[in-house]
Design brief:
By secondary structure, this protein is mainly α. The chain has helices at 2-30, 37-43, 51-56, 59-85, 91-108, 115-123, 129-137, 140-153, 158-184, 194-210.
Length: 215
């Protein structure tokens, strides 16, 4: 009896992880609204078509669980970089804190991954975009990066800062998603490694932030 009781949590954890893996892949490849909880349960090999609801609740709850399974590791890396960057007034140092935590994490997972494409799908969905922003902007390290970027940028007006911040966010999300897709599908990439891809992306974002403003 004791062995049976001990085994049950392990099976439950394995089932949850399988559902998360399956949902993340399907959402990344097909889009959020093109995939139902029932389809995810079936693709994950669950005899009960309500398995997603049983283990996670609503689709929004499932999406939040997918975000959180990655965010802790990414945030740990970001916090390390922010701590090392304290006192710097170099814009590039703080842009690296934005970009490299995610690309380093993706590099550690091998090929294929789906996290970046999943995030890109969320960012283009008006109804769910707030879920992503809440998950991303809450960590203290991200708030520190935003404050440091504003200090480095200096005299730019608030409308310009907001505009370029939005451009940078879209560029980060979409470029990382495109690189992930190219790797997964075996396509040629401009830069072969995640590290080199991040370097090019950081170059572009620094250029974006420092570009002249047309009055």
């Amino acid at each position: 009896m004791m062995m049976a009781k001990a085994a049950r949590p392990d099976r439950t954890t394995a089932t949850r992880e399988l559902i998360l893996d399956t949902a993340e892949r399907m959402f990344a490849e097909r889009g959020i609204h093109e995939v139902s909880n029932r389809q995810i349960s079936e693709a994950a090999g669950q005899g009960n078509n309500t398995a997603v609801g049983y283990h996670f609740g609503t689709k929004t709850d499932l999406i939040r669980a997918i975000l959180r399974r990655h965010s802790a590791v990414v945030e740990e890396r970001r916090a390390e970089m922010v701590a090392a960057a304290q006192g710097s007034r170099q814009l590039r140092v703080w842009v690296e804190c934005l970009v490299r935590p995610s690309t380093d994490y993706l590099a550690s997972m091998g090929v294929p991954t789906w996290m970046a494409r999943f995030n890109a799908q969320l960012m283009t969905d008006p109804a769910l975009r707030e879920e992503v922003l809440n998950e991303v902007l809450i960590p203290p390290s991200m708030l520190e990066i935003i404050d440091a970027l504003n200090a480095c940028i200096g005299a730019q007006s608030m409308p310009v800062r907001m505009e370029r911040g939005a451009m940078a966010r879209i560029l980060i999300v979409q470029m990382i998603a495109d690189h992930e897709r190219d790797l997964a599908e075996g396509r040629a990439t401009a830069r072969t490694s995640w590290h080199d891809m991040a370097t090019g992306l950081i170059d572009g974002i620094v250029g974006l932030w420092t570009a002249p403003v047309t009055r």
